[in-house]
Amino acid sequence: MLLCLLGIASSLDAGTNTAENHPQLSWKNGGSSVSGSVTVDANWRWTHIKGETKNCYDGNLWSDKYCPDAATCGQNCVIEGADYQGTYGVSASGNALTLTFVTHGQYSTNVGSRLYLLKDEKTYQIFNLIGKEFTFTVDVSNLPCGLNGALYFVQMDADGGTAKYSDNKAGAKYGTGYCDAQCPTDLKFINGIPNSDGWKPQKNDKNSGNGRYGSCCSEMDVWEANSLATAYTPHVCDKLEQVRCDGRACGQNGGGDRFSSSCDPDGCDFNSWRLGNKTFWGPGLIVDTKQPVQVVTQWVGSGTSVTEIKRKYVQGGKVIDNSFTKLDSLTKQYNSVSDEFCVAQKKAFGDNDSFTKHGGFRQLGATLAKGHVLVLSLWDDHDVNMLWLDSVYPTNSNKPGADRGPCKTSSGVPADVESQAASSSVKYSDIRFGAIDSTYK
Question: What range does the record give for the signal peptide (predicted)?
Fold first, then answer.
């Protein structure tokens, strides 16, 4: 009886104040059109007392009264349905999804968003990328330094965790179950339980904090970009599923060493600027970020094996192959990601090769074969101002690989971009999935 009561006490459920109407988003699987939709992550949702409008989470703090511990918090609180346009600046039309950076709603100001593609009202769309190609069109012309329009895949549970964790009653419909290779501890709910125990507000983010636990899983960053820089990056974890970590085992986010978790936080990135080509991506360059561009990513392999990740761009009626590396420290040129490239790149930059240590492409194939959920997001960086993507980082370094993009090291400060670039946006459209060399034009 006690166990049953504890299960009920800590369960994550949904409120009834706002109906959850998912924005519709169509996409193509092979030659067939698919009617899908998107849902916003549970972390962005209003969390309040059941049957009331009193906040359980306000600003970057859990209520001492309603959430003195996780079990009591779960008993008292629910997450609410979303007003996508009015609260989050999210709009969908046909095959296009637009995310606005800062939205001043009726009750709050929202910054950034993270959404997932749904198969149906209760299930995320699952993609097996091995031997396949994923293509989309993106417009980053309105994304300045310091912002990241990120489209990527993570090994989340298709139902958001409801089958695995009985405490999770909200599920994929309400955007639960997030995980990634950074083992984030800023999630308000993990495994259907509030992450309120040990919660500490972030000093430089009025909306976020960090709890005791984090949520780890493998991550395939197909696209991280603004108008000045871009990269694509696989990350792997030791476990082939979502796993909750505790404290220092979550790595840097949990107060431990950056490489102390069971995941590879750095990944193996292909960033054209960082790899020596400074004329490839940007306004007026070979891939002109003043115009929309079709992005094609191919995972070469079969079964549970991936050997290479290739990239192409299509713009102005032309297919543009990915740039080649231009570094004296690399004995050969590369324009794709593979185990060979990753080892060579890490050696050239003097970086910790945690990607290889956690299994490299062998582990990448194993996790991709399990199927991944598509994430579409827009965010700023309260840790290092996005300098790891678009500027020199570490800022005082002149070692190879530190120069990652053309943005100033003083750029990307969240307070600045949130006030000066509030109307920034990214538009994702025309998602296509199919056999290699079949989805682009």
Answer: 1-18
Q: Cα–chain-centroid distance for residue 113? A: 10
Mean pLDDT value of segment 27-35:
96
Across residues 224-247, what is the average pLDDT?
98
Query: In the structure encoding, which two tokens stand for residue 426, read together?
Result: 């990214």
Per-residue pLDDT reduced to its tens digit, 75-88 = 999 999 999 999 99
pLDDT digits (tens, 9 = 90+) for 252-275: 999 999 999 999 999 999 999 999
pLDDT of residue 294 exceeding 60, the answer is yes
For the domain spanning 96-435, the CATH number is: 2.70.100.10
Domain boundaries, the chain: 96-435
Just list the catalytic residues: 219, 224
End-to-end CA separation in angstroms for the chain:
61
Report the length, in residues, of the chain. 441
Q: What is the mean pLDDT of the segment spanning 172-176?
A: 98
324-363 per-position pLDDT tens digit? 999 999 989 999 999 999 999 999 999 999 999 999 999 9
What pTM did the predictor assign? 0.96
| Residue 335 and residue 322 in contact, taking contact as beta carbons nearer than 8 Å | yes
User: Measured between alpha carbons, how far is 150 from 294 in angstroms, rounded to an integer?
Assistant: 15
Residues in contact with 419: Cβ distance below 8 Å, sequence separation at least 6, in sequence order: none
Q: Give the pLDDT of residue 2.
A: 36
Q: What is the mean pLDDT of residues 187-201?
A: 96
Residue range 362-384: mean pLDDT, rounded:
98
